[in-house]
Design brief:
Order of helices and strands: HHHHHHHHHHH
Number of strands: 0
Number of domains: 1
Largest sheet: none
Number of helices: 11
Helix content: over 70%
Radius of gyration: 18 Å
Strand content: under 5%
Distance between the termini: 32 Å
């Protein structure tokens, strides 16, 4: 346990020093939030509801991207630099190393959620109850697990450039198709039908429901669990294949 704690702290320090993380996970979502609530879409019927909805969109957008890109690309970089090979000859077990990466990233997510929530409260004076703030934050924190698993999948790629390209494309496709940039209801039917099966939609949907005084649906929960299991199984299968070579 002490080994896991120390490794988690080390991983968190590394992430916080990463300017790439600060830009993509904090600066960009907050900038988008300001843009789409104070410059664009200023004539919506219920401004307060839209501001709260879009705050959840940008927070889930941030955490999803951090899970896929920050974690995934870092794992590839470490493999390319021989760090993962070095870890194997130390007393640190491989599963502890990977768990520390994911736990450390989750703690960073908590920081991201807090910062973006504070930004939303300051920029637009978001009026939510304590229950809604806490529950939406917890939903985003826990709901990010499938994307952390996807990040470990990306981390199995051999080249940093490939991982960066794939994670960027996936990130944007999931965000747009999942309704994080614009409500899925205004999309063409074909995109709407696709989006409703994506993990990003169910991730965002749970948070959107909470700020409307509702609860995430069972479909939201089960879809995220299903994607988590799929990504974990794929990771295990591909890693075994790589180790067998």
């Amino acid at each position: 346990m002490n080994m896991l704690r120390k490794q988690c702290i080390a991983e968190m320090k590394r992430v916080l020093r990463n300017k790439y993380f600060v830009f993509w996970s904090l600066v960009m979502p907050i900038a988008f939030y300001y843009l789409f609530t104070n410059v664009v879409n200023t004539n919506v019927a219920d401004k307060g509801a839209w501001n709260a909805h879009y705050l959840m969109s940008m927070t889930t957008f941030s955490v999803m991207g951090s899970s896929m890109m920050t974690l995934g690309i870092r794992l590839v970089q470490e493999r390319a630099q021989g760090w993962s090979v070095f870890i194997r000859i130390t007393p640190l077990p491989d599963h502890i190393y990977l768990a520390a990466q994911m736990i450390g990233q989750s703690v960073i997510h908590l920081l991201s959620i807090t910062v973006i929530f504070l930004a939303g409260a300051i920029i637009n004076s978001i009026d939510l109850s304590l229950f809604e703030w806490v529950m939406s934050g917890l939903w985003i924190l826990i709901g990010a697990f499938p994307f952390l698993a996807l990040g470990t999948l990306i981390g199995l790629m051999r080249k940093v450039e490939t991982a960066a390209g794939v994670s960027n494309v996936l990130y944007m496709l999931l965000a747009i198709s999942g309704g994080m940039w614009m409500p899925i209801e205004v999309m063409p039917d074909i995109l709407k039908n696709i989006g409703q099966w994506l993990p990003s939609y169910h991730f965002g949907s749970g948070a959107w429901a909470l700020v409307q005084g509702e609860l995430p649906t069972w479909k939201n929960i089960l879809m995220l669990i299903a994607y988590l299991l799929i990504f974990m199984l794929l990771f295990k299968y591909i890693r075994r294949k790589q180790e067998a070579v």
